[in-house]
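Service request form, structural biology core

Requester: graduate student, group of Dr. S.
Request type: structure prediction, single chain
Budget code: on file
Notes: please return the result as C-alpha cells.

Sequence provided:
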Amino acid sequence: MALSDEEIAPYAKELERLHESSLYSAQAYFEAAKFSEAIGRLFVFLPALVSAAAGTIIATGGDKTWGVASAVSGAVAATASFLGSERKSASYKTSARRYTGLRHRLTFEASILSNKDTLPEVEEVTRSLTAEYQDIVAADDPVPNFLYEKARKRINANVV
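Core staff response, request fulfilled:
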C-alpha cells in the first residue's frame, strides 16, 4: 500500500528544499565558471598585449624604458598562463554539474516518494540525497557573493 501524502510531507519538503538549494548553487557555479574563464583570459591577454606593444615601441626606435613594461607584462601573462585560470573554472563547472545531477535525482525521487512501501525507505532516500548534497558542498571552492546574486536574478527572471 502506498504511503499517504501526510506521511511523506516532511520528506517531500526536505527534498524540495534541497532541490531549490541545488538549483541556486548550480546556477551560481555556472556563473562563477563563466566569470573565471573571462578573468583568466584577460589576465593573459591584456599583459601580453601590453608586452607586444612595448616591444614594438622599442623595436621601432622608441624609448628603451618600455623594456620594463614589456618584461613585467610578459611575466604577468606567463604567470597567469602557468597558474591556469582554467583550473578554477573547471572546478566551478564540476560543482555546477554535480548540483545539476543531484537536482535531477531529487526531482525524480520526489515524484515517486509516495510509491515507497515504508517510511524508513523514504527516510533512507532523503538521508542519502542530503548526504550527497553535503558532500558536494564540502568539496566546493567558494563562489563570490555577487555571483550568487547574479544567479538568483537569472533564476527569478526564468533565464537559466
